[in-house]
Amino acid sequence: MAGILPKSAYRGSPQPMTIKLTRVRAGLTQRQAAAAAGISVESWPRYERGERRMPASVWQAFLSASKAKIVR
User: Would you give per-residue pLDDT tens digits along the chain (72 residues)?
Assistant: First the structure.
């Protein structure tokens, strides 16, 4: 699937399992995680399932807003 952002926007993108494990470890629902990242509720599960790649800027926004620690 082609993204709407340039390839450089995805450098540093997390893997789907990292997204899910980090969210769960932070004790957040998908809805809460989406709100923290500033994205739609529909987008978050797509990132967790690997249907879309999460832009690095969205990942950083989530980590910053949620104070979550990355789980690998």
Answer: 455 777 777 788 899 999 999 999 999 999 999 999 999 999 999 999 999 999 999 999 999 999 888 877
The CA-atom distances, in angstroms, between 31 and each of 22, 27, 37, 61, 70 are 14, 12, 10, 15, 18
State the total domains in the chain: 1
Query: Is residue 37 domain-resident?
Result: yes
In a domain, 45, yes or no: yes
Domain harbouring 22, CATH code: 1.10.260.40
